[in-house]
């Protein structure tokens, strides 16, 4: 599915080119050198390349002050050649992250992390800005699992209440007509809630948190967790897993794998948002051209 | 409680005066002449007068175009003497309401209806703008009912998912540590959810929706509904009621009355937001001075 999105984005970039519009341009602001951040950025730059988006890293030293980072973002805000700006998190501890993410101008906020973008999710996308990429990608996965069935009236449980995943995820599903319960570390009995869910979204970051007894048979389970557990059979000595135990697949109707599930969809949605930013900057409406009918999703990039 | 808030606002206005700062100024933009709107505006102007806020109505004709309304708001945005601007809803049907409410600049958005203000609720108030008045007032009522007990881990059900009441209400309670379920017209079994709630907030607008069998014994019930039912014993032929049937008081631990519950708290929170806007415009921090210790809430305005 992520490949199909990237394919559609490439199609959109090509279509802009036929109208004489230059490719979308994305800048990833990185402060310091977190190894995980470098790995994520590599994936984003690779995805951008695959769909014709010009993406580059704008690296600042670990010692950069908050004011210096904000200044760098403001320079990118003022540059017409840049259409999307994201700040790779986490930032060094001496920096107040919200002050930095909020500095990205709304029209270039392709991560959807600013307050105006988040508020737009409450208002059901009434303004022309961007939905955060992870919940947007999860929505695509859920809609795909639902096929032609309506989400209206389904019971949803979201475990995790972060600003950029759990809360906007719940809001998107609420606006799609679901009844949404948001659980978190303070919830008295998460399992009891989870067992009621037709759709269960888990975004906690705790390997094996969700066992099969937490899942209603046939439920759609979206695993947003990224955890590393030791695995002597791997060269690195560790293995990436989600928040769901393996046994969940025995009861779930649908389960996203980790790795290879939500992660690639998140990156793909970032590319889609960047294309949308470019289209708006060029004065086109934001709607993404539909993928070609009958497009084989798994092989989309080979087509 | 509303009177105590107004008293504290009056104290804050007086304190500003001792520093040579002029009173807060609030403008209510009214388009056309909806009788209910006039009644609400009268209450707001009266509350403002009680606490020393300069408030006035800015009336536009029913036929005003969206562009004319937005232009009027922009003029108020640009006027230093105006600290808070609200748009009385509903607007005439030929006007796209979100385009109008979004025109209010964030620093004067004392109703908290703009996307940036709503986004700030997701982010736990990380920016200096305003929380919508009704959910903010409901939080005060809930905290008062809780006394010294923590909200953390309590089960909350919010019935109603509007942008300006249900959704921000759920977010405020989520950020206070509650487990929050949001129900609405599409929910399969609202009663089953409601019966699990330690705190039940009802914001639907349907008289008698919630009966005693929907309420967990001892629950805190916040009734945001405003409905009119026929009552021949009244001169007007009708009576204002909430969304809860009278019998709810037999089982609820706390229940807000209608009228006289959430409504006055909403107006009081508008005054508090307007004072905050004035304080910020004058370069002070936004914290409201605490009410005098031991203040008798019921008699606050007579003190």
Kindly describe this structure:
The structure is a homodimer of 303-residue chains. With 303 residues, chain A is of the alpha/beta class. Chain A has helices at residues 2-18, 35-50, 66-77, 97-101, 115-122, 133-146, 166-175, 190-194, 262-281, and strands at residues 25-31, 54-60, 84-87, 155-159, 179-183, 199-202, 220-223, 227-230, 238-241, 254-255. Chain A has 2 domains: 2-118 and 263-282, Leucine Dehydrogenase, chain A, domain 1 (Rossmann fold, 3-Layer(aba) Sandwich); 133-259, Rossmann fold (3-Layer(aba) Sandwich). Helices cover 35% and strands 15% of the residues of chain A. In chain A, the strands form 3 sheets. A 5-stranded parallel sheet of chain A has the order 5-4-6-7-10. The first copy, chain A, has a 3-stranded parallel sheet with strand order 2-1-3, sandwiched between helices. The model of chain A is unreliable at 287-303 (pLDDT under 50). The interface between A and B is large, with 37 and 37 residues.
Keywords, separated by commas or semicolons:
3-stranded parallel beta sheet; Rossmann fold; 9 helices; homodimer; 303 residues; 5-stranded parallel beta sheet; 2 domains; alpha/beta
Largest sheet report of chain A: 5 strands, parallel
- Oligomeric state of this protein: homodimer
Indicate the proportion of strand residues of chain A: 15-25%
CATH homologous group name of the largest domain in chain A: Leucine Dehydrogenase, chain A, domain 1
CATH architecture of the largest domain in chain A: 3-Layer(aba) Sandwich
Query: What pattern of helices and strands is seen along the backbone of chain A?
Result: HEHEHEHHHEHEHEEEEEH
Net shape of chain A: globular
Q: Within the CATH hierarchy, at the fold level, what is the topology of the largest domain in chain A? A: Rossmann fold
What structural class results from the helix and strand content of chain A? alpha/beta
Counting DSSP E segments of at least 2 residues, the number of strands of chain A comes to 10
Number of domains of chain A: 2
- How much helix, percentage-wise, in residues of chain A? 25-40%
């Amino acid at each position: 599915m992520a490949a199909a999105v990237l394919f559609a984005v490439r199609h959109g970039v090509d279509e802009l080119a036929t109208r004489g519009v230059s490719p979308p341009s994305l800048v990833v602001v990185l402060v310091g050198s977190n190894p995980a951040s470098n790995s994520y950025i590599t994936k984003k730059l690779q995805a951008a390349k695959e769909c014709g988006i010009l993406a580059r890293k704008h690296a600042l030293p670990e010692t950069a002050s908050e004011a210096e980072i904000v200044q760098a973002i403001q320079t990118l805000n003022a540059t017409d050649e840049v259409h999307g700006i994201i700040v790779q998190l986490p930032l060094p501890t001496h920096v107040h992250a919200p002050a930095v993410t909020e500095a990205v101008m709304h029209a270039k906020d392709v991560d959807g992390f600013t307050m105006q973008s988040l508020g737009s999710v409450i208002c059901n996308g009434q303004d022309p800005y961007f939905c955060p990429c992870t919940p947007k990608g999860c929505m695509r996965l859920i809609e795909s699992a639902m096929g032609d069935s309506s989400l209206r009236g389904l019971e949803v449980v979201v475990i995790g209440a972060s600003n950029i995943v759990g809360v906007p995820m719940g809001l998107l599903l609420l606006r799609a007509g679901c009844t949404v319960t948001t659980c978190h570390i303070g919830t008295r009995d998460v399992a009891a809630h989870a067992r009621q869910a037709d759709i269960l979204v888990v975004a906690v970051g705790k390997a094996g948190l969700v066992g099969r007894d937490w899942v209603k048979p046939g439920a759609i389970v979206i695993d947003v967790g990224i955890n590393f557990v030791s695995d002597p059979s791997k060269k690195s000595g560790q293995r990436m897993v989600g928040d769901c135990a393996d046994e969940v697949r025995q009861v779930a109707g649908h389960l996203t794998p980790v790795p290879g599930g939500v992660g690639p969809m998140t990156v793909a949605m970032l590319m889609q948002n960047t294309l949308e930013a470019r289209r708006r900057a060029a004065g086109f409406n934001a709607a993404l051209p539909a993928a070609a009918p009958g497009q084989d999703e798994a092989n989309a990039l080979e087509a």
